[in-house]
């Protein structure tokens, strides 16, 4: 494999990666099908924004957002089933069950641990001690601008955390299990070692305080854009969408078995952040994973950061003791 | 408890009638591609085949099983293929609801232990109230977005406490995994039977 030069890097020398929008297949089929797979994403995004913008206070609550999130994911699972992007990414009973297990951890065990170690309480304490009057100017901004800033600043933090994970071993061991997934499906975003979720949650987001409605609007960006990182459906996303937002295509490059390709497209929602820092690669990959696509069991995923960290530490200490003392 | 009933949880057993005169060599030759997947080891011993799967690929058609035994036996008229497969995924899925019931109980206990103090609740309410009192951007007023309303004073004795962690999610997942288990136990047994039948009937 030769790979393709993108900036200073060669992408796809180890594992096939398609580079460039012009080389990516488009949705095939009748006009109705084309219409649907072209307009589904923007329509959903604008519908959600309009909903949260105008919903009465009695409805604009976090519990409604949880309900919409679950409903949206079920809809997307249906699309995956009807129109899979790659046959090799088909959702099986076992894949679905394992994915849902990781999703369930986020809703139950991790909340429990958070409650126990009181990380919510820490955020609350910071917010309370922080003079919110200093942020009054922010609350006076138009809602959509507030939502954009919340979403963008949060994603900016996440971009650097994610990039850090790919560049610094102690952070990498927490993120590596997520890269062992060999196919993208709607719930794959939850697959990984739970320590990683704590690190991502450490973003600056928790230290801000905003109007609930602005936060809900920002959240709907994450739902109606970020969710498409992991999905086995092909869309004809509009050009402006692909320029601004992360897509399945971008994220499949990030999950490629090609090492250089995996070091790109770090943002979660705003791929334009990758464009700003030169880490964006427009393209797609079908062959995903690590170690030639070796799957990782739930048990190994849970212990990996500690087991691999320990192994590496022992190796390093061993090497040092062999070397003559200076 | 009935040992076989307990085994049924993660053991899939079945038998298929073979065409008269079909030999075990023929049968295993046809089934062979299923055991040539990465991570699969197999051992043939006359009319018996044992296999083990480790780190099976997501798209391995028998990914749900970790091992098992297939035998070609003499039947009354035609030979019979008997299989006995085991699945840790099914066992795990069966146990998951029990785990979530424990988590639900723990959520309630931790919630009691972590109850916010009245001072904390008051501070939070005060802040929310002050935020709601700030003027909304004129653009939003013009576009007609609903203005934030002051949070209602909560009755401290009321049981409807938003801040308290609820065990609901754990109960919901206990339900989801129960359904998934039943779908998996019945569906995967059927799928593997169909898979064997299809392989044995193709020429
Ligand atoms: Zn990554």
Automatic annotation (TrEMBL), chain A:
Main location: membrane
Signal peptide: none
Subcellular location as annotated: Membrane
Residues annotated as transmembrane: 34-53, 59-79, 135-156
Keywords assigned: Membrane, Transmembrane, Transmembrane helix
Annotated Fatty acid hydroxylase domain residues: 149-279
Protein name in UniProt: Sterol desaturase family protein
Automatic annotation (TrEMBL), chain B:
Region feature Disordered, mapped onto this chain: 139-166
Alphabetically ordered keywords of this record: Membrane, Transmembrane, Transmembrane helix
Transmembrane spans: 89-110, 168-184
Biased composition (Basic and acidic residues): 149-166
Stated name of the protein: Uncharacterized protein
Organism of derivation: Sphingomonas citri
